[in-house]
UniProtKB/TrEMBL annotation:
Cofactor(s) needed for function: FMN
Function: NQR complex catalyzes the reduction of ubiquinone-1 to ubiquinol by two successive reactions, coupled with the transport of Na(+) ions from the cytoplasm to the periplasm. NqrA to NqrE are probably involved in the second step, the conversion of ubisemiquinone to ubiquinol.
Subcellular location: Cell membrane
Top-level EC class as recorded in UniProt: translocase
Residue ranges crossing the lipid bilayer per the database entry: 56-73, 93-118, 130-160, 234-256, 263-283, 289-309, 321-339, 345-365
Annotated protein name in UniProt: Na(+)-translocating NADH-quinone reductase subunit B
Gene coding for it: nqrB
Record has Transmembrane helix as a keyword: yes
Chain coiled-coil ranges: none
Oligomer and partners: Composed of six subunits; NqrA, NqrB, NqrC, NqrD, NqrE and NqrF.
Length: 384
């Protein structure tokens, strides 16, 4: 008997009108995870395309893997280089895997549990959107954040950030960034400072993990060369440090048509412009830091590629994507420089633009309508 036949037999008690009909969404989720759904459009316009939500989400997960694998290695490298232990790839990677895997398990376990509960309660199918969110949340957290804090942040992100708005496709804020924002304001001592970015730094006095942005905000030199910043061998959140591997993920998203290159390029343009403006002044270390350096430190690259391009919470129109991306870059650098208590900036910038994305699209569409009305009026005037 094939796997398809076994699943079909298993699903019979959960069919409509059967004893366990209420639990059908949970069982169907397993089916759609293993096989392409066989749903077809019954009426209206038909779009012939082999891409569904599951394939889109899996593509994003694949694009995240290079940054995640390097993040696991860098987690071990940052710890071992200070403790004097071996820094070969496999030793560092296994150390990082041991630290990060529990965060991923908790994120998926708690998040998917809530998704299944809401699907059963509302009587709809389980959406695949959390496949990406569940991986993004641990990737943007400090490595030693307690697992119970990760769980609470996930609950807040899924319940308040998504399900309260109607579920996948209805949320106005990026769920992963919502989780990080909640953790940052609820548990600030575990989300900032010099002891949270390197594994075991809280428990071992000899280990310190101050980030480049933290050093610059304190008025000190960055302490790393540009190659280290680009490659990612610096302290930071789990998978945000390597611009190199984030660019590999960006290439996957762009080539598959999943991520918007307009938002990515717009963000780089906006951040570069604001960085160049600040470079003209010599007020503090953050202003003097080279504009191109801002593109490689902190969570700018990761946030721009994997969260600013979220098709649900980002701008939808072509012109709107350019405006949205440029404003994300502008506000990111602006927040970094003007907010010494939080020198990162990208999280706040993206969440702020998530709120204004519908407004941006509204005025873009309205501008197009007004232009067409003027062309029509001019054409009618000529004919008369």
């Amino acid at each position: 008997m094939s796997l398809r036949d076994k699943i079909d037999n298993f699903k019979k008690p959960f069919a409509k009108g059967e004893k366990y009909e209420k639990w059908a969404p949970a069982v169907n989720a397993l089916d759609t995870f293993l096989f392409v759904p066989n749903h077809t459009t019954k009426k209206g316009a038909h779009i012939r395309d082999g891409v569904d939500l599951k394939r889109t989400m899996i593509t994003v997960v694949i694009a995240l893997l290079p940054a995640l694998i390097y993040g696991m290695y860098n987690t071990g490298y940052q710890h071992n280089i200070q403790t004097g232990e071996a820094t070969d790839f496999m030793t560092c990677f296994l150390f990082g895997l041991w630290k990060i895997l529990p965060m991923i398990v908790v994120s998926y376990g708690v998040g998917l549990g809530i998704e299944f509960a809401f699907a059963i309660y509302r009587g709809h199918e389980v959406n695949e959107g959390y496949l990406v969110t569940g991986l993004l949340i641990p990737m943007i957290m400090p490595v030693d954040i307690p697992l119970w804090m990760v769980a609470i942040a996930v609950v807040f992100a899924v319940v308040i950030g998504k399900e309260a708005f109607g579920g996948t496709g209805m949320n106005i804020l990026n769920p992963a960034l919502t989780a990080r924002a909640f953790a940052f304001f609820a548990y600030p001592t575990f989300m900032s400072g010099t002891k949270v970015w390197v594994a075991d730094a809280i428990n071992v006095d000899a280990i310190s993990g101050e980030t480049i942005l933290g050093k610059l905000a304190a008025g000190n030199a960055a302490g790393y060369d540009m190659w280290s910043m680009f490659a990612g061998s610096i302290p930071g959140s789990v998978a945000e440090t390597s611009t190199l591997w984030i660019l590999v993920g960006a290439a996957i998203l762009i080539l598959t048509g999943v991520g918007s290159w307009r938002i990515m390029l717009g963000g780089v343009i906006g951040a570069s412009i604001m960085g160049l403006i600040f470079n003209a002044f010599h007020v503090n270390a953050l202003m003097e830091f080279p504009w191109y350096g801002h593109l490689m430190i902190g969570g700018f690259a990761f946030g721009l590629v994997f969260m600013a391009t979220d098709p649900v919470s980002a701008a939808q129109t072509t012109t709107g994507k350019w405006i949205y991306g440029i404003l994300v870059g502008l506000f990111c650098i602006m927040i970094r420089v003007f907010n010494p208590a939080y020198p990162e900036g990208v999280m706040m910038a993206i969440l702020l633009l998530n709120v204004f994305a519908p407004t941006i699209d509204h005025y873009v569409v309205q501008s197009s309508v007004n232009r067409r009305k003027k062309r029509l009026a001019a054409k009618q005037l000529k004919t008369t």
